[in-house]
Write a structure and sequence with these properties.
Length: 314
């Protein structure tokens, strides 16, 4: 084997320390590879069939803890290694029912080129804690499983509201995802963020967070509609807030450019905006809850713009 042409692809459910187990297994069989790809780091939430169709081939070694995925790869005639209880198995597993593997159409390829494109901006705005990253992966799996893959999503709608809370601002976001077919829509994510943003920048901060939350879920290739609360200033539209702070405006433009199609609309009534307002009021009365997450848009802007975090203080 030519090691320069082999890549180890580690499935999302496989811990990085398990690679040591595989390396010992591979060494015994004189298998070597030149590089490694962790799906968890690069393509988190991607469906198994997309992994098989677009990330694997004759020059890959697939390490997985998923029995169905393992057998799917072997059925294609490629190398797969199943990890269970600290042991590696490279043979097909018994009693696994496989669905027919759909042919990869030109449309699928175009979609995957867009979906699998790793966004540098998304990497900058991901949460830092492992607990938050785990929650994010759970949400992505829930969306994927509900619709049968991200390619079955039709569009996304985000409802945004906020209110002052002590010397901070409490932002609320409801993200609804709908399908391309007749499947029912779901609440893809519900987020409540505490931020020290100045009052005059609340509107801008709210919209930027909405874009960030969508990027974290890798939903930027879908048509997006963001409905923001008009109760704070009914006479102004979002576009009129662009002059308030250059740093926030520049960050907004960079974030918006990550999206294929995004629209903004102010709302003052409707079930989703009323639900979001109600939940914000409840959280203000009982703030000691893990539903509230502290973030800092000024620091987020520095990450997006590539400036020093000291600039967040100015």
């Amino acid at each position: 084997m030519n090691s320069k042409k082999l890549q180890l692809v580690v499935d999302e459910g496989v811990p990085k320390k398990a690679v040591d187990i595989f390396d010992a297994f591979a060494k015994e069989r004189k298998i070597s590879y030149a590089e490694i790809l962790y799906i968890k780091d690069t393509y988190s939430g991607i469906p198994d069939i997309k992994i098989v169709n677009h990330l694997l081939g004759d020059t890959t070694l697939f390490l997985t803890a998923d029995r169905v995925a393992h057998n799917l790869v072997l059925k294609r005639g490629w190398r797969s290694y199943y990890l269970f209880d600290g042991k590696i198995n490279d043979a097909a597993l018994p009693n696994i029912i496989l669905r027919e593997i759909a042919e990869v159409t030109h449309k699928d390829k175009l979609y995957e080129e867009s979906f699998l494109q790793n966004s540098a901006i998304r990497n900058l705005v991901l949460p830092c804690s492992e607990k938050q990253l785990k929650s994010l992966r759970t949400k992505r799996r829930r969306i994927r499983n509900h619709f049968g893959g991200f390619d079955q999503l039709g569009e996304v709608a985000v409802t945004v509201s906020w209110d002052r809370f002590k010397d901070q601002t409490l932002f609320g976001f409801q993200i609804q995802a709908s399908s391309r077919n007749s499947m029912p829509a779901i609440m893809a994510s519900e987020n409540y963020i505490i931020d020290v943003t100045p009052q005059e920048l609340q509107n801008h901060t709210a919209i930027c967070y909405a874009l960030i939350l969508l990027l974290r879920l890798s939903l930027q290739t879908l048509p997006v509609k963001i409905y923001f609360d008009l109760k704070h200033d009914r006479e102004k539209t979002f576009a009129e807030y662009g002059h308030l702070h250059a740093k926030y405006q520049q960050s907004f433009e960079i974030l918006k450019n990550e999206f294929t199609q995004v629209q903004f609309a102010g709302v003052n009534k409707g079930s989703h905006i009323l639900q979001t307002r109600k939940k914000i009021t409840q959280l203000k009365a009982t703030p000691d809850t893990n539903e509230l997450v502290s973030e800092n848009m000024a620091l987020m802007c520095c990450k997006v713009l590539g400036t020093s975090e000291d600039a967040a203080k100015s």
